Amino acid sequence: MNADHRILPVPEGLAGERVDAAMARLFGLSRTRAADLIAAGHVELDGTAVAKSDRVLPGAILDVTIPVEADPLEVVPEIVEGIKIIHDDDSIVVIDKPVGVAVHPSPGWTGQTVVGHLAGAGFRIATSGASERQGIVQRLDVGTSGVMVICKSERAYSVLKNAFRNRTVDKTYHALVQGHPDPLEGTVDAPIGRHPKADYKFAVMADGRHSVTHYETLEAHRFASLLQIHLETGRTHQIRVHMAALKHPCVGDLTYGADPTLARRCGLERQWLHAVRLGFEHPESGEYVEYESTYPDDLAHALEVIRDAH
């Protein structure tokens, strides 16, 4: 355990104070944090455990262990099973992201990350952007797999950041959605904002951000359709929100109203959504490059179940 260990005599000025109040004054902690440390057994007075309401005497030895709380945004280098490197050069690294891996650390996420993997694998990433998001010009949800690009040079970062902002990057996804969208191909142009009742999800909202999704049907089966989707904008959960708004949520996407029975039949524990292709002008050479990712096992299996369902 990383901890800060401090031993101090109680000064005259704090004589008769409660232990939690004295600790708050001596160590600059909040009273609550001091009380938590006492409750966790991290505090001794003259070698014996104390209660937070005990009073301190001048000259008594206060022995406190303060565990260092992990920074939720710290990038922890850690090799992640299943991240495949599709392409690597001096400016960019293109990866195939597996499901269950976040792109970068964020508050509340304690799992593995793409930036942690790249740090663990010895990749030098561009330092532009917030420290936990360095080199990141696009994101995929934790529950979405597929191809994504990370920038290694500062120049690549600024060029590609602009390309994503100006929507000159070709982002192609495949999604298996419930039912059959009508028409079979079309465009969803509907603004997306935070869901008014659940802050972990999004919804079509009148005052949301401009969001455009183009789709076409590749295969239509009894229970579901395989769509090819081109994103014009790149909002969080965009495809999932737009498909749910059409009443054709991604198979397995229980957050956005998918049928749990169908998800179980398909053996899915996440939304059927995969980033299959990414195309852009290479930030150094300027030539158009395109990278692809095949379906991972769980999605391939689910698609077979749907194809075989009569």
Poorly predicted ranges: none
State the assembly state of the protein chains: single chain
What is the highest CATH level, the class of the largest domain?
A: Alpha Beta
Proportion of residues in extended strands: 25-35%
Structural class, from helix and strand content? alpha+beta
Total separate domains: 3
Overall mean pLDDT stands at 93
Number of strands: 15
What's the Cα radius of gyration?
26 Å
Largest sheet: 9 strands, mixed
- Large-scale geometry: elongated
CATH level-3 fold name of the largest domain = Pseudouridine synthase
What is the second-level CATH architecture of the largest domain? 2-Layer Sandwich
CATH superfamily of the largest domain: Pseudouridine synthase
Order of helices and strands: EHHEEEEEHEHEEEEEEHHEEH
Range of helix content:
10-25%
Give me the number of helical elements: 7
Q: What's the end-to-end separation, in Å?
A: 56 Å
Active site: 141
Protein name: Pseudouridine synthase
GO molecular function: RNA binding; rRNA pseudouridine synthase activity
Pfam families: PseudoU_synth_2, S4
Describe this structure in words.
The protein has 7 helices and 15 strands. It is of the alpha+beta class. The chain folds into 3 domains: 3-67, RNA-binding S4 domain (Structural Genomics Hypothetical 15.5 Kd Protein In mrcA-pckA Intergenic Region, Chain A), CATH 3.10.290.10; 71-166, 2-Layer Sandwich (Pseudouridine synthase); 167-310, Pseudouridine synthase (2-Layer Sandwich), CATH 3.30.2350. The strands form 3 sheets. Strands 5, 6, 7, 8, 9, 12, 13, 14 and 15 form a 9-stranded mixed β-sheet that branches. The protein has a 4-stranded antiparallel β-sheet with strand order 1-4-2-3. A hairpin with a 2-residue loop joins strand 2 and strand 3 (48-49). Helix 1 (19-27) crosses helix 2 (31-39).
